[in-house]
Structures are given as C-alpha cells and as structure tokens.
Amino acid sequence: MDSNLATTEKVIFLDFDDVICLNSPYGGHDVFHKRRRPVDLWERLFDPGCLVVLGAIHQEHQPKYVLTTSWIDYADRSGFEAILKASGLSYVAQALHEEWSAPQGRGMTRADAIRRWLSDHPVGRFLVLDDEMSGVGLKGWAEAILCRVNEGLVSEHIDGASRILCI
Predict the structure, then answer these.
(1) How many helical (H) and strand (E) elements, i.e. helices and strands, does the chain have?
(2) Secondary structure of the chain: what % helix, strand, coil (to 5)?
(3) DSSP class of residue 138?
(4) Cα separation, 24 vs 98, whole angstroms
(5) Rounded CA gap, 140 and 35, in Å?
(6) pLDDT the model gives residue 1
(7) CB–CB of 139/115 below 8 Å?
(8) Torsion angle in degrees (nearest 10) through CA of 66, 70, 73, 76
(9) DSSP string, 25-66
(10) Predicted local distance difference test score (pLDDT) of residue 36
C-alpha cells in the first residue's frame, strides 16, 4: 500500500441496524432468513432519511467503507455489494475498502473488532457509525457517532461526522 495513501485515507466503519436500517418495515431477517423476499424489500430496507444523511457525509468526504454490522455473518463481499446496489447504495458498494469488514470474534466487542482492523490497516481519519445498543465499547470514542435505536442517522450527525473526518 502507498504510505501516502495510508495517512490520508478516510474510512467509515458502518453498522446497519439502527444506523441506516431501522427494521421497519424490513431488516436483516427479511434479507437472509425468509424464503420469499417482499417485493419492495430493496426500496424499503434502509430508511430514506438515514440514507440522505449518509449520502451527504459520503459526498463531502469520499470515504472508504468497512462493514461492522452483524449481517457480515451471512454474506460475503459480493453478497453485500449486491445488497447495497439493490438498495440504492451503489456508492458504498463501490467504495468498500479492500479489507471490507471488521468481524467480531467470539468474546469481542465492536470496539475490539475495529481496534484490531485499525492495527492492521493504518488510515488518516476514521468515523464509526453505530448505535447505542450494538456499539459496545464505543461510548466515549471521539471518532464514534452512536445513533439512537429506531432513529438512526439524522441530519444533526452531519456536522459531527465532518469534524471527525476533516484532515
């Protein structure tokens, strides 16, 4: 890897549940565990308001993405690229980091998984988008925005994300 790139690259660690997927009307269960997917699944899987906020953050910072969602237990990279594209998040699919996920090992917190990923992949700035429930160990991190359950990303998060990601 180019050492110059490693010091300027921006990365967003992205959780899905209660960040962009509010599980209303659909969630990961509908993607991975139902034999028959609802016909409007891809249009309604991710909350439109949350997607506007993520889109604004992406537009301003052009980050790479690393998925930290528990959904990574159910699909590989190509599966996630397909889900993201079908759900209107082609820009995230195209910007997945080469090392696209930070899985939690047994007994690890989300914070542990991110620390482990960062120890192997130096970046310039990073932002963690997670929620108050699954973002175990992230409370107090200056680089983390913890969304409220059933609320997800809201416009107030844009300024915080910009402060965190500005180099």
Answers:
(1) 8, 5
(2) 40, 15, 45
(3) -
(4) 31
(5) 40
(6) 42
(7) no
(8) -30
(9) S--HHHHHT-SS--TTHHHHSS-HHHHHHHHHHHHHH--EEE
(10) 84
Break the chain into its structural domains and give their ranges. Answer: 3-165
CA distance 148 to 2: 37
Q: How would you class 78 by CB atoms within 10 Å of its CB: exposed for 0-12, middle for 13-18, buried for 19 or more?
A: exposed
Mean per-residue pLDDT pooled into runs of 10, the chain (167 residues): 61 97 94 87 96 98 96 95 96 97 91 95 95 90 96 97 90
DSSP 148: P
Let me know if 79 is exposed, middle or buried by CB neighbors in 10 A (0-12, 13-18, 19+): middle
Token pair recorded at residue 88? 């209107």
- Please report the pLDDT score of residue 7 as a whole number: 65
Amino acid, single-letter form, for residue 94? Q
Q: What CATH number does the domain located at 3-165 have? A: 3.40.50.1000
